[in-house]
Amino acid sequence: MAESAELILDGKSISLPVIEGTENEKAFDIGKLRDQTGYVTLDSGYKNTGATKSAITFLDGEEGILRYRGYPIEQLAERSNFLEVAYLLIYGSLPTQTELDKFAHQITTHTLVHEDVRKIFDGFPSGAHPMGILSSLICSLTAFYPKSLDPNQSPEETNLNIIRLIAKISTIAAWSYKNSVGHPLNYPRNDLDYCSNFLYMMFAFPTEKYEINPVVVSALNKLLILHADHEQNCSTSTVRLVGSANASLYGSVSAGVNALWGPLHGGANQEVMEMLEAIQQDGGNTQKWVDKAKDKNDSFRLMGFGHRVYKNFDPRAKIIKKAADDVLKALGIDDPLLKIAQELEQAALTDQYFVERKLYPNVDFYSGIIYRAIGIPTEMFTVLFAMGRLPGWIAQWKEMRENKEPIGRPRQIYTGELERDYVGIDQR
Ligand code: CMC
Q: Most buried of the four, 21, 40, 191, 210, by CB within 10 Å?
């Protein structure tokens, strides 16, 4: 491998050191470029820019590989559970039984939120989107735990905030739904595991006994694991960027929730479901919608298709597609939207437009079918994505802080007006 690259600029040669990751990913280090040459690089959408070195997640978009801390996503989805994966991402290795029990116990005993947080819900109009509520309430935790604002807090204090956030996000998420439909809120139950407790808070009514279905618990664990990290995506980069200003964990994650909400990112799972419903209502002609997506005069895109880094099958989509089949069978549900999704996938995968551009179904394409089967309302889909992504955001925020990364502050190429004199309003 070359140890450096040579850049010839204005007749001068500049040597750029080559950096290589453990999976042979290569980069030019341009850290001194501006000082040496006066030039910066321009890379809209950061398509070629490595923003950091990270030891958390490895992703090979050409080969369809995803690993957390070296462990293949397929093995984790099949054999692990969400809290174990959260531990792995945040602390770097798989926990022993004692470590996992302690971690799970700490999280279980922090699921209650301050009663004043409850009052904040009253300020939201009914029908407010739960993602807006989630991001506001995560940020509101800074008010209840002001020590989290201290950039020099001890590692123990940081860890406590990490535990609180993982614990309370499930309560806040479930309450944001209950609040949006005007139902009484359920307090967390310490006798239940993480996923069962969330399902209980989402679906139990004081008037009825709530039975926890192990098929649903296992499906939820799998979905959360599959979403748990995805290296430097839009929301994670947001969390790191905000955190690089020494902003608190709660503030940084709250920003990440907003980034995730966008329909080109995590908000796509809600959009996929709405698209499948629209296709169904339109008579189910999937080819018509594939053609619409290809039409450059139509802004419509096939939601749940395409990915910035996967130019092959998204490995998470493969697992979710199978899980959707299994969950529907186990629950005895025959969802016509699954058939539409399968037809749409088939039509797109055999179409020249999608083949040429390497557009495959992504993680959001089939996840909604499972969420729907287990009773999660469409507006909550992205909230579930946020719950899953939380350990990744935390791990990346913690790594950035521990590595003492500098504040993120990109450059630009200015394309505006040259200097001109101010003109009084009566002369314009
Ligand atoms: N439907 C139709 N055409 C598409 C689609 C799509 N879903 N996605 C990309 N294209 C076309 C696009 O028009 C462009 O064509 P051309 O070269 O002729 O101009 C080409 O494919 C490349 O697209 P791009 O927009 O330059 O690619 P990108 O890497 O900037 O965008 C993306 C990636 C995920 C934003 C995009 O594929 C998209 O909008 N997909 C639909 C939304 C979606 O499913 N998002 C979830 C992503 S996975 C989960 C997550 O990130 O949270």
A: 210
107 lines ligand 1 (CB under 6 A): no
DSSP H or E run through 162: helix 155-180
Domain boundaries, the chain: 12-65, 76-408
Residues ≥6 apart with Cβ < 8 Å to 399: 54, 55, 56
- Specify the CATH architecture of the domain 76-408: Orthogonal Bundle (1.10)
pLDDT tens-digit map of 216-275: 999 999 999 999 999 999 999 999 999 999 999 999 999 999 999 999 999 999 999 999
The β-bridge relationship of strands 65-68 and 71-72 is: antiparallel
Instruction: Evaluate: CB of 358 within 6 angstroms of ligand 1.
Output: no
Among the options 229, 307, 314, 351, which is catalytic? 307
Report how far ligand 1's centroid is from the alpha carbon of 134 (Å): 27
- Phi, psi torsion values for 210, nearest 5 degrees: -100, 120
Instruction: Let me know: does 323 contact 367? Beta carbons within 8 Å.
Output: no
Ligand 1 pocket test, pick from 46, 276, 305 with the greatest ligand atom count within 8 Å of Cβ, gives 305
Q: Tell me whether residue 364 is one of the annotated catalytic residues.
A: yes
pTM: predicted TM-score of the whole model, two decimal places = 0.94
